[in-house]
Design goal:
CATH class: Alpha Beta
Order of helices and strands: HEEEEEHEHHEHEEEHEHEH
Number of strands: 12
Largest sheet: 6 strands, mixed
Strand order of the largest sheet: 6-1-5-8-11-12
Number of domains: 1
Helix content: 25-40%
Structural class: alpha/beta
Number of helices: 8
CATH architecture: 2-Layer Sandwich
Distance between the termini: 76 Å
Shape: globular
């Protein structure tokens, strides 16, 4: 014998699949990573008890001011990110939702990703050293540069490493500091020929820079619009495309002579 459902019962029965779908969507893993402003480190000083830049084979100078490389902190490559997590981060100014593949290489294990990031950092450090010595016209057979930055991977500190080496060896070229005594932060990859490349996550990096006392932020020119999106008050953006342009901008900023580019 068949029985007829009342209207409330029918609505309840029909709602069950919908509730199940919503619950699945809320808690199912999604192909995203969540990121927030990470640590910064002054490449002219120490990080975790060790000098970031050590130079032998050439006379170095005592520097003032800071050159702070910036990072973002992202959820781990195997972290479960749900729709609820995405919604929470989407409307927060100090967090960002990024495609998983934009943060981590796809199809790799955690150990493979860590190895990849370490290799990228080593390549970045080698390129930074070569770019700095090329800029200063110093042979790398005479000058040895060691770069050490614990627990940081990837290539995005390249530009700041290069500027740090130049400041320690030559300053602004006229006896002053490349920083002009300021706390300057930034990001950007570097090639041996001095070309500066984009890195991603710049809106979060500007927040990390401001948090740690920076007043100036060097940003790859093609990422100006991203950097301006959530730019903290009191932080000045300087777009760069090359090492030469970055040094020229900092020298002009220090001396008050010449033009300083802006986003």
């Amino acid at each position: 014998m068949l029985s007829r459902l009342t209207r409330p019962q029918a609505v309840a029965v029909c709602a069950l699949p919908v509730v199940a779908l919503v619950a699945t969507a809320l808690f199912a893993p999604l192909p995203f990573a969540l990121a927030q402003p990470g640590m910064t480190a002054n490449v002219l000083g120490e990080n975790k008890g060790a000098e970031v830049i050590t130079i032998s084979g050439a006379k170095t100078r005592t520097t003032s001011g800071q050159l702070r490389m910036t990072t973002i902190e992202a959820t781990g490559p195997d972290t479960h990110v749900s729709l609820g997590d995405v919604f929470d981060s989407w409307f927060s100014t100090d967090r960002a939702v990024m495609p998983h593949d934009a943060v981590y290489p796809s199809g790799q294990s955690v150990k493979e990703i860590e190895k990849h990031n370490t290799a990228q950092m080593k390549e970045s450090q080698d390129a930074a050293t070569e770019a700095a010595l090329n800029y200063l016209k110093l042979g790398d057979d005479k000058v040895e540069v060691t770069l050490k930055l614990a627990d940081v991977g990837g290539p995005s500190a390249g530009l700041l490493f290069t500027l740090g080496i130049i400041d320690k060896l030559n300053g602004d070229g006229a006896g002053g500091d490349l920083t002009g005594g300021r706390t300057i932060a930034g990001t950007g990859t570097i090639d041996a020929d001095g070309t500066v490349g984009a890195v991603g996550g710049v809106a979060l990096k500007t927040q990390a820079a401001k948090r740690d006392g920076a007043t100036v932020f060097l940003v790859p020119e093609e990422e100006c619009s991203d950097a301006k999106a959530e730019l903290p008050k009191g932080l000045r953006l300087i777009p760069v495309t090359s090492l030469k342009g970055a040094v020229s901008a900092l020298t002009a900023l220090e001396s008050g002579k010449g033009s300083v580019p802006a986003c």
